[in-house]
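Sequence design from tokenized structure. All designs in this work follow the same two-part layout: the structure record, then the generated sequence. An example of the structure record is given first.
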């Protein structure tokens, strides 16, 4: 169902009947099955395996992966529409969908061999297995090119022996396979990083501390520890020493997903606020009659629609990239920067409009506020997005 026009000159993003059907189907699932359990899973921090399996059965865990590799064979607009609807019901589910689709499947689809696609992509895109992406370490976050974990080729040349500690791995506690970035030639700095496809059910793979988080609490996040983990050479993704570029290119796709997640959170908070402003009475009238509330509603709506346009712009650039190979780093960073700051702005205003009820766990508004914050941090902080955008515009490295 790739619906974007396949000619570089005529490329445009069109909302087709198929996109509308997908959007409606995801909305139904999200509102009927995910939204009602969101509060419970947020409170317990439990991973929502049952609904993740249901999303997998609908093809949502590998949306842009061709059907031949277990995916739904759709385009980047379909992915964004899905992310918005799922995140609107529950941002934790959005995070799980995003990492599986963009950070795991996208990387293997783009750089994997046929054998790697059969072994790692097919089960993850079809939703049978769960994928994760592991770049960050305790002492290497925004400065992703510096890492202390190491992979050393054994004497027989058959396996890389991996040692080290990775942190903040989304789906780390439950992942079956991990796209891991680690140093093979430390003296070459970022040019010494290599990407590996890791089977989490092999010896030497240890799931570490689970992070207690402010938001997206049902998306499990943990450290991963590698102790003499033996990774076969055939599980190197792309070329040895090309890991940093793979990590960055995969994050370009990931950042569009996070922007769409932020848009979903903002829409949920906005719709709750409009309803509350219509119903809540104060000083003898609905609070929506007051100009100070109207100003908030106007600013929220305008920023939400501006985010949507930047996200669609990034989708178009990604579709163009599928033809030309051109990077869409700038468009992805702008979409993520603006949409995540919009989610924070909108959820902040939503709590204020709701007053005491916005601060109460009886309504989901306080969860939207907590969930929004991560979108300004993971897959590159707002500071990193500004750096990427400015460097691009100034022609700097
Ligand atoms: N695509 C392809 N190649 C890229 C690229 C991209 N988007 N961005 C950079 N590169 C290449 C450059 O062309 C350059 O190549 P050469 O060496 O051949 O010239 C190389 O990578 C190094 O580029 P820079 O000099 O720009 O690298 P830098 O060290 O200055 O770092 C950075 C750039 C933008 C700060 C980058 O480190 C970055 O994005 N940091 C943030 C990391 C991040 O987002 N982490 C989140 C991890 S995932 C997560 O959040 C957890 C989760 O599970 C959700």
């Amino acid at each position: 169902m790739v619906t974007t026009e396949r000619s570089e000159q005529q490329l445009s993003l069109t909302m087709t009947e198929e996109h509308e059907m997908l959007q409606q189907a995801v909305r139904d699932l999200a509102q009927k099955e995910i939204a009602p359990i969101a509060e419970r899973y947020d409170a317990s921090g439990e991973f929502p395996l049952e609904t993740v399996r249901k999303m997998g059965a609908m093809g949502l865990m590998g949306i842009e992966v061709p059907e031949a590799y277990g995916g739904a064979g759709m385009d980047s607009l379909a992915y964004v529409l899905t992310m918005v609807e799922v995140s609107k019901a529950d941002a934790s589910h959005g995070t799980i969908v995003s990492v599986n689709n963009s950070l795991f499947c996208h990387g293997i689809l783009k750089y994997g061999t046929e054998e790697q696609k059969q072994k790692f992509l097919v089960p993850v895109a079809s939703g049978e297995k769960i994928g994760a992406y592991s770049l960050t370490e305790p002492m290497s976050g925004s400065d992703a090119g510096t890492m202390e974990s190491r992979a050393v080729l054994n004497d027989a040349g058959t396996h890389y022996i991996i040692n080290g500690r990775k942190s903040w791995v989304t789906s780390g506690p439950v992942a079956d396979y991990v796209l891991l970035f680690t140093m093979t030639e430390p003296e070459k700095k970022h040019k010494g990083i290599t990407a590996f496809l890791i089977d989490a059910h092999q010896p030497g793979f240890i799931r570490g501390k689970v992070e207690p988080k402010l938001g997206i609490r049902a998306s499990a996040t943990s450290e991963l520890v590698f102790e003499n983990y033996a990774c076969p050479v055939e599980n190197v993704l792309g070329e040895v020493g090309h890991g940093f570029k793979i990590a960055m290119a995969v994050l370009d796709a990931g950042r569009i997903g996070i922007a769409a997640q932020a848009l979903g959170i903002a829409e949920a908070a906005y719709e709750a606020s409009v309803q509350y402003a219509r119903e809540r009475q104060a000083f003898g009238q609905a609070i929506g009659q007051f100009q100070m509330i109207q100003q908030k509603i106007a600013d929220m709506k305008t920023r939400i629609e501006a985010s949507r346009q930047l996200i669609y712009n990034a989708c178009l650039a990604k579709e163009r990239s599928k033809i030309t190979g051109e990077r869409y780093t700038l468009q992805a960073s702008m979409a993520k920067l603006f949409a995540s700051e919009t989610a924070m702005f909108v959820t902040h205003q939503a709590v204020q409009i709701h007053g005491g009820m916005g601060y109460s766990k009886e309504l989901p508004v306080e969860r939207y506020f907590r969930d929004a914050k991560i979108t300004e941090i993971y897959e590159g902080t707002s500071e990193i997005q500004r750096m990427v955008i400015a460097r691009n515009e100034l022609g700097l490295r």
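The longest strand covers residues 159-170. We note this feature because it recurs in several other targets discussed in the main text.
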